[in-house]
Amino acid sequence: MISELNKEQKILLGSSVPMLKIMQIINKVSKTDVNVLITGENGTGKEVVAREIHKQSHRQNELMVCVDMGAIPETLFESELFGHK
User: Fold this and answer.
1) Which residues does 24 contact at the CB level (< 8 Å), separation at least 6?
2) Helix H or strand E encompassing 2
3) pLDDT tens column, 23-74
4) How many CA atoms lie within 13 A of 49 on its CB side?
5) Other C-beta atoms lying within 10 Å of the C-beta of residue 79
6) What domain count does the chain have?
7) Which three-class secondary structure state does DSSP give residue 67?
8) What CATH number does residue 38 fall under?
9) Residue burial 46-66, b: 16+ Cβ < 10 Å; e: rest
10) Which residue range(s) make up the domain with 45?
């Protein structure tokens, strides 16, 4: 369900208007201290975007975890991510 980000390097490439917009958002978000939720269809590069945000952030030397939300049953979502009460 939760796995440590591996060291495999994937990069964002592109010069289209939508890609440039994504890169601008990544640059802006990576300079802040906020949690980021990235949504989208399978295979759209959500994890690549997350890695790039992490790589550019002040947390780049800290552990990053990626969560496959499809692997967590809806009834267990809150306790898996935020702990049991």
Assistant:
1) none
2) strand 2-4
3) 999 999 999 998 888 888 988 999 999 999 999 999 999 998 888 888 888 8
4) 20
5) 11
6) 1
7) strand
8) 3.40.50.300
9) eeebbbbbbeebeeeeeeeee
10) 2-82
pTM passes above 0.90? no
Scan for tokens 């495999």, then name that residue.
Answer: 8
Residue 51 token pair: 């890695």
Number of Cβ within a 10 Å radius of residue 22:
16
Residue type, 69: M
Per-residue tokens: 4: 């440590």
Q: What dihedral do alpha carbons 3, 50, 46, 34 form, nearest 10°?
A: 110
Residue in the block written with tokens 């802006």: 28
- For 49, the token pair is 């975007």
